[in-house]
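Hypothesis: this fold can be encoded by more than one sequence.
Test: take the structure tokens below, design a sequence, compare later.
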């Protein structure tokens, strides 16, 4: 991470944005092939699942969240696996924890109380999940979340800017959010399930990166369709090309509906194949998920009790 240079806004190039084209059937074919990949050999899958734990933004974003639930989530984030599993996997000397926790603004304080700086806190701001409060309210929400102790802010973009092709408005919005975040890293949630086409997903990815987003993230988890492999392929290829053109490395966060070890392995494989090992670290890759850790723990338990092959019959990356 030593040569890591945080993204900075670059001028919006509308000529470039308007010419972006995505070959949907090629993306679909590539996505279908990913399910059969053998990049990660079976014997390494347990190690990859342990790695995946460190990439999770362990999330609770429910209307009935309470301080008690968030405190429990944070304790789980600090000790993601049961002690017997840690011992069986030989991980006693490894400081295993999730990448971060992700909560609503009102739940930052209980998270701060438990984590005490040991893990980053990501807060969803800007009128999550629809993002349809006033711009003034959204910017203020970011400022309050940063002041409360969030070091990462997951913003939601205004979907109508994409749906009406108003790229300048999206760029200006993202610039304002990035400025309000200050030193806190900003993840731009595109809500891809509401953007209709992969072309829109690609264009929105580019505009948000050009306006200074540190990460681009698929979904809030509240849209009818959340993270998918074709959408992810489109976004990580935009990240790859943005890096080639500007030298800035942007992180990627699939989120919403990523609930199985099998899905996590597919996303790790995708990142490795499209962007390389460097993008398998928490400063460039997170998986936003509320239930994934439970399934990973279950699969690792099968692994240490010898039932791993059976458990992973359908989980080949
Ligand atoms: O940002 C994270 C998502 O809201 C989590 O979605 P999930 O509950 O489907 O895992």
């Amino acid at each position: 991470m030593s040569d890591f240079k945080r993204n900075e806004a670059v001028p919006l190039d509308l000529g470039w944005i308007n010419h972006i084209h995505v070959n949907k059937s090629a993306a679909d074919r590539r996505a279908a092939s990913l399910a059969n990949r053998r990049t990660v050999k079976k014997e390494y899958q347990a190690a990859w699942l342990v790695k995946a734990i460190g990439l999770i933004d362990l999330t609770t974003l429910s209307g009935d969240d309470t301080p008690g639930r968030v405190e429990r989530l944070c304790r789980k984030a600090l000790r993601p696996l049961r002690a017997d599993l840690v011992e069986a996997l030989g991980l006693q000397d490894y400081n295993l924890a999730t990448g971060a926790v992700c909560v609503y603004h009102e739940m930052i304080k209980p998270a701060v109380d438990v984590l005490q700086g040991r893990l980053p806190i990501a807060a969803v701001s800007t009128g999550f999940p629809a993002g349809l409060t006033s711009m003034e309210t959204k910017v203020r929400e970011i400022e309050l979340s940063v002041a409360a102790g969030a070091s990462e802010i997951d913003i939601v973009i205004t979907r109508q800017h994409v749906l009406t092709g108003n790229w300048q408005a999206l760029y200006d919005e993202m610039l304002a959010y990035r400025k309000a975040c200050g030193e806190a890293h900003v993840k731009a949630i595109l809500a891809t399930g509401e953007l209709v086409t992969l072309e829109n997903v690609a264009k929105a990815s580019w505009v948000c990166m050009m306006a200074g987003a540190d990460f681009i993230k698929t979904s809030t988890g509240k849209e009818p369709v959340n993270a998918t492999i074709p959408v992810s392929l489109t976004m990580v290829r935009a990240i790859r090309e943005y890096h080639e053109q500007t030298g800035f490395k942007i992180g990627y966060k699939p989120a919403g509906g990523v609930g199985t070890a099998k899905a996590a392995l597919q996303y790790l494989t995708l990142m490795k194949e499209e962007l390389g090992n460097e993008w398998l670290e928490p400063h460039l890759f997170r998986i936003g998920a509320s239930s994934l850790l439970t399934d990973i723990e279950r699969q690792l338990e099968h692994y240490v009790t010898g039932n791993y092959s059976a458990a992973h019959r359908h989980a080949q990356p």
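Residues 133 and 252 are 26 Å apart (CA to CA). Confidence is low (pLDDT under 50) at residues 313-317.
Hypothesis status: open.
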